[in-house]
């Protein structure tokens, strides 16, 4: 299983089958995200990330958000 590193606010590593699994992990760790439906959370977190580093973030699916995070340097595959 690949190990990923998320560098958004704080940096932490996690194991997941696909990069898109970053969404529920972010939602668990995010102060405001707990209990919010996934679509609304993805939209809000994409807006936050735009403000964070002025990148473009797509949020129509878990994988689209993860790919945007890769492109903007917030997510990487460690091994």
Structure characterization notes:
- The protein has 79 residues and is of the alpha+beta class.
- Helices cover 43% and strands 19% of the residues.
- It contains three helices and three strands.
- The protein has a three-stranded antiparallel β-sheet.
- The N and C termini lie close together (9 Å).
- The model has no long low-confidence stretch (mean pLDDT 92).
Q: Which helices and strands occur, and which strands form pairs?
A:
Layout: E1 3-8, E2 10-15, H1 22-29, H2 38-53, H3 62-71, E3 75-77
Antiparallel strand pairs: 1-2, 1-3
Fraction in beta strands:
15-25%
* 3D shape: globular
- The assigned structural class equals alpha+beta
Give the % helix.
Answer: 40-55%
Give average pLDDT, whole number. 92
Could you give the distance between the termini?
Answer: 9 Å
Order of helices and strands: EEHHHE
What's the count of strands?
A: 3
Q: Compute the CA-based radius of gyration.
A: 11 Å
Report the sheet with the most strands, covering strand number, pairing sense and barrel closure: 3 strands, antiparallel
């Amino acid at each position: 299983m690949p190990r990923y590193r998320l560098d958004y606010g704080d940096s932490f590593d996690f194991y997941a089958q696909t990069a898109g699994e970053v969404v529920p992990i972010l939602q668990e760790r995010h102060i405001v995200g707990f209990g919010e439906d996934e679509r609304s959370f993805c939209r809000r977190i994409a807006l936050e990330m735009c403000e964070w580093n002025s990148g473009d973030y797509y949020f129509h699916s878990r994988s689209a958000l993860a790919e945007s995070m890769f492109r903007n340097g917030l997510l990487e595959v460690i091994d």
